Amino acid sequence: MSKVLVSDPIDQAGIDILTQVASVDVKTGLKPADLIEIIGEYDALMIRSGTRVTQEIIEAGTQLKIIGRAGVGVDNVDVPAATRRGIVVVNSPEGNTIAAAEHALAMMLSLSRHIPDANASVKRGEWDRKTFVGAEVYKKTLGVVGLGKIGSHVATVARAMGMKLLAYDPFISTERAEQIGCQLVDLDLLMQQADYITLHIPKTPETTHLINAKTLAKMKPTARIINCARGGIIDEAALAVAIKEGRIQGAALDVFESEPLGESDLRSLGKEIILTPHLGASTTEAQVNVAIDVAEQIRDVLLGLPARSAVNIPGLGPDVLETLKPYMQLAETLGNLVGQLAGGRVESLNVRLQGELATNKSQPLVVASLKGLLYQALRERVNYVNATIEAKERGIRVIETRDASARDYAGSLHLEATGTLGTHSVTGALLGDKEIHLTDVDGFPINVPPSKYMLFTLHRDMPGIIGKLGSLLGSFNVNIASMQVGRKIVRGDAVMALSIDDPLPDGILTEIVKVPGIRDAYTVTL
Ligand SMILES: NC(=O)c1ccc[n+]([C@@H]2O[C@H](COP(=O)([O-])OP(=O)(O)OC[C@H]3O[C@@H](n4cnc5c(N)ncnc54)[C@H](O)[C@@H]3O)[C@@H](O)[C@H]2O)c1
Ligand SMILES: O=C(O)CC[C@@H](O)C(=O)O
């Protein structure tokens, strides 16, 4: 039975799903050294933001197949290190969207009305109504930095509260921004004009200290800034100075450069700053959502199924997965087959996506083809995660083409591998939406389902050749399950595809090519 380690507090709903397929250990608060010591026993690791999954931990996790982050940000996981090791990293991209957006809105209103300090004052026994005079957000301008899932929801609610909306997001279209009611502007203008600025971007090298002394200097002295995205997007030292010197009105932070927040000038500021301990996702609803979402993906991967929100498998989102799932096995089978036909070292693989597969969304089929191609060399060590890197490291050039006009089947896949021993091609499609059929080998039309053991011959189409091959196989005690000839013209070149019940005995291929008319023979195990 598989073993899963849960190293941060996760809702029980997630644990219940994991226990359907694995034995689950919940060990929270582990020190990195303790985690390194035990991680080698586990097939999966489930975390929130508390565990830092470093390269060292990943390397010690020799059995790890999947790391599940119950939340959005995977910046606490060394994703490149996991990818190199073929470990799937999954997250829950939407489970806590509403929770994080509502936290940002709560921060904005709390800042405006000094709610935390007013509350603390009443609890101290005071009744001070002068100190806590606030400001309305109605008709004020909100600048949203990052108009993705959380930013859009914040904008939608803020609009309903009567706020004017500016947004900065270089990766979204003006039309999309307008749909949400935002005017798309550059960061400078947003910093200068907004009364409230809220950050909803990932932390990347480009966004680290995006908000610094220089950008803070552009804000109105009455403006406030909110960060419920990631610590480090704001330069905390510069922010503390800007608030202390009254150059901006205030800030609300849920996330910090280093968590938990240690010694910091931010702590000494008064009612102009609100600090919460990374609570954006901390609602009962969000914790159930992310726990279920990620636990289901861990369960699926442990059962050998693809994950719907893998961050290191290109393009395998839930919508894409639904359509492509049946074709993934086809792509792997064809990759494995063409690799064996090509033999030797493959130098290039041309993947042609045909018919309804000729869309950008079919890119995962290229990865699946590579996984199949590399299977003979790497066996279980190759997967959807590392197939592209492994191919690149082996110098395999991958060419992806599309042909929407190919209409023999709803969708079909054509693979051509060129290697040190020559070029071979295979085409396949699905019959009845799920049964894999080979429809072409080396340009000769056939129609056979692949089987575990197969023999392909390239021969001259002439009387008696099938009989001779049958007798030869019989003399080696090889039982033929099915046989089909593909040819373009009568008595021209042809391909024979045979499904056989057992692996071919050693030495038989040299005998097969001695049969008059047979030029080449290839044995394949799928
Ligand atoms: N505080 C919490 O507990 C909490 C909870 C959930 C998410 N988050 C964080 O909130 C942030 C947003 O999450 P999301 O789900 O909305 O992500 P998302 O991917 O849906 O949206 C991010 C947006 O940022 C934009 N973006 C990327 N780089 C940018 C840049 N340099 N400048 C401007 N825009 C840029 C993208 O185009 C995208 O539209 C993430 O950092 C996530 O980790 C925090
Ligand atoms: O696990 C948490 O509570 C934080 C999650 C949040 O930061 C996220 O990126 O999803």
Automatic annotation (TrEMBL):
The Gene Ontology biological process terms listed for this entry are: L-serine biosynthetic process
Its Enzyme Commission number(s) read: 1.1.1.95
Which reaction is recorded as catalysed by this protein?
A: (2R)-3-phosphoglycerate + NAD(+) = 3-phosphooxypyruvate + NADH + H(+); (R)-2-hydroxyglutarate + NAD(+) = 2-oxoglutarate + NADH + H(+)
Q: Does the keyword Amino-acid biosynthesis apply?
A: yes
Quote the pathway field. Amino-acid biosynthesis; L-serine biosynthesis; L-serine from 3-phospho-D-glycerate: step 1/3
Which superkingdom heads the taxonomic lineage of this protein's source? Answer: Bacteria
- What SUPFAM superfamilies does the entry give? ACT-like (SSF55021), Formate/glycerate dehydrogenase catalytic domain-like (SSF52283), NAD(P)-binding Rossmann-fold domains (SSF51735), Serine metabolism enzymes domain (SSF143548)
Does Amino-acid biosynthesis appear among the keywords? Answer: yes
Pfam families xref list: 2-Hacid_dh, 2-Hacid_dh_C, ACT, PGDH_inter
| UniProt-recorded Gene Ontology molecular function terms | NAD binding; phosphoglycerate dehydrogenase activity
Q: Write the record's keywords in alphabetical order, separated by commas.
A: Amino-acid biosynthesis, NAD, Oxidoreductase, Serine biosynthesis
Domain (ACT) ranges: 454-526
Question: Which InterPro entries does this chain map to?
Answer: ACT-like_dom_sf (IPR045865), ACT_dom (IPR002912), ASB_dom_sf (IPR029009), D-2-hydroxyacid_DH (IPR050857), D-isomer_2_OHA_DH_cat_dom (IPR006139), D-isomer_DH_CS (IPR029753), D-isomer_DH_CS1 (IPR029752), D-isomer_DH_NAD-bd (IPR006140)
Q: Could you tell me which NCBIfam families the record lists for this protein?
A: PGDH
Which family is this sequence assigned to? Belongs to the D-isomer specific 2-hydroxyacid dehydrogenase family.
Q: What is the recorded function of this protein according to its Swiss-Prot or TrEMBL entry?
A: Catalyzes the reversible oxidation of 3-phospho-D-glycerate to 3-phosphonooxypyruvate, the first step of the phosphorylated L-serine biosynthesis pathway. Also catalyzes the reversible oxidation of 2-hydroxyglutarate to 2-oxoglutarate.
Give the protein's recorded name: D-3-phosphoglycerate dehydrogenase
Query: Per the UniProt entry, what species is this protein from, by scientific name?
Result: Umezakia ovalisporum FSS-62
